[in-house]
Every structure is written in C-alpha cells, then in structure tokens.
Design brief:
Order of helices and strands: HEEHHHHEHEEHEEHHHEHEH
Low-confidence stretches: 131-135
Number of helices: 12
Radius of gyration: 19 Å
Largest sheet: 7 strands, mixed
Strand content: 15-25%
Mean pLDDT: 92
Number of strands: 9
Number of domains: 1
Structural class: alpha/beta
Shape: globular
Amino acid sequence: MISQEGLIEYFKDKHVTKVFFERLTLSNGNPGIMYLYNYNSELQNFKESFGLYLPIYVKNEDNLETMDFTDDIDAKLEYYSKRIWNESKVIAHRQTKINGIYGELFLDIYLRVVLKTKLLISYASKRSFNSGFESKGIDSMGYVFNGNQIEIYLSEAKFVSNKSTVKKELLSDIKFGHSTTIDGVTKTSPAHLTKNFLDDYFGFVLDKDISCPMKDRTQIKSIFDYFNNEINKVGSSKKFTDLLIEKKIKVHFICFAIFKAEEKKPDELNEIYKEIMDAIATQFSIIGISNFSSEIIFVPTMNQSMEIKKEIDSFYE
C-alpha cells in the first residue's frame, strides 16, 4: 500500500512536469508566474495528468489507503480513475464546457504537488457549499504550518478560452460576483474576496469534518475548536475574518488559469497580471487583512480549452 503523501510524491517524480515544467516570473518582481512545457505533446500530457491524478484529487487520505497501489502505480491510478469517473456520485457530471473539475484538478496539482500545501476541506465536502449556484465558492482551501502558526491558502481556478475571459472571470471571483441564468431564472452569486463571503465560507468549513492529512488532525482540530469557541460565545459578534486579523494569520490568495495564448513570456501579459493583483490587494484592504500574499499562475496552451477538455474526456471512453 502507498499513502496519499506517497502518491503525491510519486506524481511529482513521474508526471508533474507534463504541465508544470518551466517556471517563469515577471521581470518587475510582481507575483505573476507562468509555466511552460512541451507543446508538441500538449493534448496527451493534459489527458494523462488529469486521468492519473483524479483519484488523488477526489479521494481523501482515508479512502486512498484502502486502494491497492502495489506493482504498476500508473496502471492502478488509471484503473481507479476510470472507476471513479464512471461510477462515483461525488463527481458532478455536467456538460464539459461548464464543468469546473478540469481547472480545479490542475490547480490541486499546483497546490499540493508543486507548492506542497495541504487541504483543509475535501473535494466531496466543498461541493455541498451553496449548491444553488454553479459558482459555489473558493475552489481550494489549504494550509501550511510555519512553525506552530497556520497559514491559509485560498485559490481560484479557471480553464477557459482566452486571456480576456481569464481576466473577466477572475475579477468576477475577486470583487464583482457572478450572474448565472438557468431556465430563464437569473441568480447572482457574491464575489469571493469579500468579508461576508469569506465569513460564510469559513463557517461552512468549520462545520465540516476535518479533511486534512491524518498526522495534522489533532493540531487542526485545536485550531478549529479555538475559532468555533470564539465565534459561538454568547454575545460574540466575531466572525472568522475578524479572528484571522486578530491572530495575524497569513492568508495566501492564488489565482490559477489555463487558457489558449500566443504569449509565452509573463511580461507580455503584465497588464492582466497587474489588474488582477491590484484587485486582490484592494479587496484585502477593504476586509482589513494586511497579512496576505498573492500569486497569479498562468498556463498558456496551444489548443483551445474545449479541445483539451475533450481529449481528457477521451481518457474515460
């Protein structure tokens, strides 16, 4: 048997460079990042990366440890991936063009394999937040420990057609909100980087079962207990963001996007990076959180997003 941590290390050794190979940064020092890779095998690389990582993304540590990963790990990952995709009730089988799992999975690879963060809430748990909206909430909520202090990672993922759509969608997540029309009925979901939304979402996370790795659960539970005790005190008006500010907990905000682009140097997209970074800084200032950082990760592709997503879908045919 192999642990979740072991599978993540295996994926890092064998597969992560298929999408995350060459890391480039903006020359002006702003936190904008771009990843390049072998474009000649783009479709195959995206398909294999998605297919082999799906079990790691969907299943939590406890469930993964019941699976058989002896012998050929790739073959076992492919086997479980196809079972999960075709049989699991956890995965939302929406139309490919509106299914958020594609961008979210590659975001998870970036967060857990490249950055080595850990998850506070599982894929299955987060899907139950505010299910009346297509855009439900923060795409990933993770953490690291810096000594004994926890640091929180909030992330948004986009897998879209072009750079204009990337900018529009990320700015909507950050400060404008989204409007969704289904069967003639329009619903408006709030922007995610606002105090009210974050308090609601953090409250939802605090109410869920702890989905972090087993070795961190005692420490995470004590942190959850502290926040819940402070919020639930009779007469208390404190919300989660108030406690983040009070305890000076650092918040990292990551915007991640895959899209078709001819530009293969971060400086060529500097205006978009800057507009998004400025919006993040403004929203944190409005909330009152000063201890934060931001990153914007762009992965430009040669093929349209729908061509790549359809190639990924073919993994399961």
